[in-house]
Design brief:
The chain has 179 residues and is an alpha+beta fold. The chain has five helices and six strands, in the order H-H-E-E-E-H-E-E-H-H-E. The chain has one domain. Helix 3 packs across helix 4.
């Protein structure tokens, strides 16, 4: 009887672990709301829209906070064609200038996304962080001087909420890395 008793105990223990698991600290519907907000924000049309590559993702990392990831081109390059032999120096310079002009606007938009996410992720503890990683895609032939390939921003939720209404305070509350 030792064998069946041990087997039964093992089954009950495993079942207890499954039923004893608690719901995630930050529910999936909250991270999905952040994803939808990011997708809407960066897919919005305008005079010089972003070219969104895929969709934004938001995940909760236990003990750290929320991470939002996205990949995009800073500008929509409508005249880019893979079958075209070469781009003129003027076209390459124009694309570079458009991206450089858009970079500060993009960073402000990321900061605003982080601030709004602090409200959306209401179950996220105040001492945990909200981080965003943006991968900026570039063509092999374009001039990338002064352009990062990756932007990473991170801040405690409490600091984001405190600075939400003040763009200068919001920028000061967020740690930024460009690579």
């Amino acid at each position: 009887m030792k064998g069946p008793a041990i087997a039964a105990l093992a089954v009950l223990t495993i079942a207890g672990l499954g039923f004893g698991a608690s719901e995630a600290l930050v529910p999936v519907n909250a991270t999905a709301a952040v994803e939808n907000a990011a997708n809407d924000r960066f897919r919005a049309s305008g005079t010089d829209p972003y070219e969104f590559l895929g969709t934004a993702r938001c995940t909760y990392i236990n003990g750290y906070g929320a991470l939002i990831t996205l990949e995009l081109q800073l500008v929509y390059a409508s005249n880019v064609n893979p079958f075209r032999p070469a781009y003129s120096p003027e076209e390459i310079a124009s694309l570079h200038d458009r991206k450089l002009k858009k970079l500060p606007v993009f960073k402000d938009t990321l900061r605003a996304l982080m601030a709004s996410s602090a409200t959306t992720l209401d179950s996220l503890p105040l001492n945990q962080r909200i981080a965003v990683e943006a991968r900026l895609w570039h063509f092999r032939w374009e001039d990338n001087k002064g352009m990062p390939e990756r932007i990473f921003m991170s801040a405690e939720k409490s600091k984001l909420l405190a600075a939400k209404a003040n763009p200068a305070a919001l920028a000061a509350a967020i740690e930024e890395q460009d690579q």
